[in-house]
Amino acid sequence: MNKVYPDAKAALDGILRDGMMIMSGGFGLCGIPETLSDAIRDAGVKDLTFVSNNAGVDGIGLSRLLETRQIKKMISSYVGENKLFAQQFLAGELELEFAPQGTLAERIRAGGAGIPAFFTKTGVGTLVAEGKEIREFDGEKYVMERGLFGDIAIVHAWKGDTAGNLVYRKTARNFNPMMATAAKITIAEVEHLVPAGEIDPDHIHTPGIFVQRIVHVPNAKKHIEQRTTRKRAESAAS
């Protein structure tokens, strides 16, 4: 089975449709599958639900799909860097399901493991728990959270082989490994594509069994959300 596709458009061909739930890896702008998310934008599908820690920043990442009004709902834990996200939510144009970051990660992990729901203390007594089942265990209250499983997952990896085995680099690992397990079809964009068998099995983060399609993206952009530099000292000479 050939998993390698010539570009992102080809890798998404035949599987996109309106109303899908899409899992999108990354944290802020670190490790986001930008090439694939741009291809989804270009495909024009709409009424999408995206599961992602956030929606990038204005003009980068999933924010580009907010610009084209293709996203109907976000399931996220942080939206503070994106003015367009806030504007659409406050105007009632975008549905938002907030999840504490650890809970979001566990919901994704649970979905990938075939676990439909679990109980956690996080969020009990807050807005997060509204409308959800509360149960008591050993004298403590817990809220039930549902696992998340998408139609497709898009992830970004530093290295991958033609069998779909993936390696993420440092903090760009973030949500990507969990997302890769939690969808019917997983598509990975990889910076370095190597032949099957070249990656040390002990170094593999996502086994190829979870990945159905691969796109080689050798010149992936590495954005910086906020660049903070020390003010340059004024010259003594005037």
UniProtKB/TrEMBL annotation:
Its EC number is 2.8.3.6. It comes from Rhodopseudomonas palustris (strain ATCC BAA-98 / CGA009). This is 3-oxoadipate CoA-transferase subunit A. SUPFAM superfamilies: NagB/RpiA/CoA transferase-like. PANTHER family: ACETATE COA-TRANSFERASE SUBUNIT ALPHA, KETOACID-COENZYME A TRANSFERASE. GO terms for molecular function: 3-oxoadipate CoA-transferase activity. InterPro entries: 3-oxoacid_CoA-transf_A, CoA_trans_fam_I, NagB/RpiA_transferase-like. The keyword Magnesium does not apply. Keywords: Transferase.
